[in-house]
Amino acid sequence: MNKKYTVLKIILITISLSLILDAIVGEYFYKKFIRKNFLDIDSSYAIKNHIFHHDFKKNFKGLAGWGNVNYDFCTDGNGFRDSCSNQFNEIKQFDIGFIGDSFTEASGVSYEDSFVGLISSNLKNKKIANLGISSYSPTIYYAKINYLLSAGYKFKEIIVFLDLSDLIDDTACYILKDNKAMQRKTFPSCYKNNAIKKNMIYNFFTSNFHLITQLYNLIKSKIVKYEAPNEIINHTRSDWTYNYKKENHNNYEYEESIKIIKHNMLKLSKLLRSKNIDLSIAVYPWPSTLKNDTENNKQVKLWKEFCSINCKDFYNFMPPFFNEIKKTNFTEVYKKFYIKDDVHVNSEGHKVISNFFIKNYNK
Q1: Contact between 160 and 131 (Cβ < 8 Å)
Q2: Phi–psi pair at 280, nearest 5 degrees
Q3: What separation, in Å, do the N-terminal and C-terminal C-alpha atoms of the chain show?
Q4: Which residues, 6+ apart, have CB-to-CB distance to 316 below 8 Å?
């Protein structure tokens, strides 16, 4: 009995000392040695804009971070994300302007590995601009393009990469007033994800015991088969195509939400038509789409019908990803084409987008 008591006592003392040591110096060592590569990240490239809510600094060059990834981030003389070799490019005439949110901005990858960068390198005879920035939506697409056209920018075609999260953004985050994108009163709550289940004990440990958390994650990655987290495969901002909840969309009924986002895209369509600029639309899947929805989902049907009247082309990027599901399974496709524990595609996913686009664009 005494021997067992002694062993138990030693274990408890060891655990207690480890927790105390981690609480005292764990954060310092974590930042100094584990997270040291992220200390020089410069996020100052993101700035406010009184016309279209937020923008990028012009002629920026620095190191950006997304999750556990670092990458070079550059903008040209217009504030458009571009290759660092074009940092001081100030041309205002473009053949194609791509616009969208973080997917189009290409959060988590270098410009050269993004689908806009890859397309640009393939279509060398085309002048291409990446107008996309994280958290954009049709409200901002219209406000920004309207501003750029009034400022003397020229485009032959605008291709809008409509994100599944755009519906929440247009109903709960932004509203158009006098051609300006303004925040709605519900803006503070429009980026929540109800799929995230708060675990108070886990959150306490991750916030206070950094080294033990890292050790736990390392051991877990070696012995437990990886599965995409619940907050990724059941994401509030993308599940409206199969699980619409009006409380996530400013209490609008489904038909009302669709009317709002279509109205904003129709304004953009009319604006471009008045300037003899072609409009094309692209749609693509989130991980939750691949896991829980069908290839011919509501996002596809909505914008395919809209494009039958208002667009030059409609690019549907659902098939190339769903075809991969048919070959293997969701988990393998997620691991191959998406950033780990994230909803954004990685460099391999961007290749799928660029290859499929080039193939259809050349037709």
Answers
A1: no
A2: -130, 155
A3: 81
A4: 282, 283, 300, 304
Structurally, at CATH architecture level, domain 40-188+234-361 sits in: 3-Layer(aba) Sandwich (3.40)
- Structure token pair of residue 333: 């496709």
pLDDT at 219: 74
Residue with tokens 């995409």: 228
Q: How far apart are CA 163 and CA 283, in angstroms?
A: 7
H-helix or E-strand containing 59?
none
pTM of the entire predicted model: 0.87
At 235, the amino acid letter reads H
Q: Which two tokens stand for residue 112?
A: 């050269």
| CB-neighbour burial class of residue 99 (10 A; exposed 0-12, middle 13-18, buried 19+) | buried
Query: What are the extents of the domains in the chain?
Result: 2-33+196-223, 40-188+234-361
Q: Give the burial string for 233-257 (b: 16+ CB within 10 Å, else e).
A: bbbbbbbbbeebeeebbbebeeeeb
Residue 293 has pLDDT above 70, yes or no: yes
User: Strand 180-183 and strand 174-177: pairing?
Assistant: antiparallel
Q: How far apart, in whole angstroms, are the C-alpha atoms of residue 71 and residue 60? A: 14
Cβ(321)–Cβ(85) under 8 Å?
no
Cβ contacts of 200 within 8 Å, gap of 6 or more:
none
Q: What is the pLDDT of residue 42?
A: 83
At residue 325 the predicted structure's pLDDT band, cuts being 50, 70 and 90, is: very high
